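User: Could you check the structure of this?
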Amino acid sequence: MDELRVLLGDDHTVLRQGLRKILEDQRDWRVVAEAGNGRDAVREAIELTPDVAVLDIGMPLLNGIEATRQIVRRAPSVRVLILSMHSDQAYVTQAVQAGARGYLLKESAGSELIAAIAAVAAGKSFFSPAVAQVVFDDYVRSLTERGITDRYDALSEREREVLQLVAEGKSSREIADVLSISPATVETHRTHLLQKLGLRNTAEVVRYAARRGIVH
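Assistant: Sure, the predicted structure tokens are below.
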């Protein structure tokens, strides 16, 4: 990647300026646009197709979750990183289900922003440690309620490989190419790992992988 292009969406001008300074101190990184509300963020993302859109979860006119959903649908090459003051599991779940690749707490944005954007730009996931812990606790509680234990050790080597690639956002076709197997075989492994881990969909796979440190 010759240049990493970033869109900043937040209704606090001072915060946006601070984030811009941090990002533009990085070599070959450029903030291509700023947006003070969710609707402008979606418009800029569609028009400019940056590599990463960093969106505040609480923007006016259109919140960060809905903005993420629209960007992912209308500009799928743009990877979204949510910036939030909320570490509640419900917010994280909504962000992941909307298509966000990462969730960064504002309180740690200064120290984690570069790593978070770099990870998301590379097709990986990133969750602030505090967020990962909250989601992990909720996950353990939900497994207990469903009478399921974490059976990661029961996964085969291939199922673990598929788990990571799914969590990194790769399609079955892309996973098949990486592992030199057929898409049908990928789907079989995916079905088995979901059953073994008690997971139900891709969003739960992403959260599980983040909790275990499989993706960052």
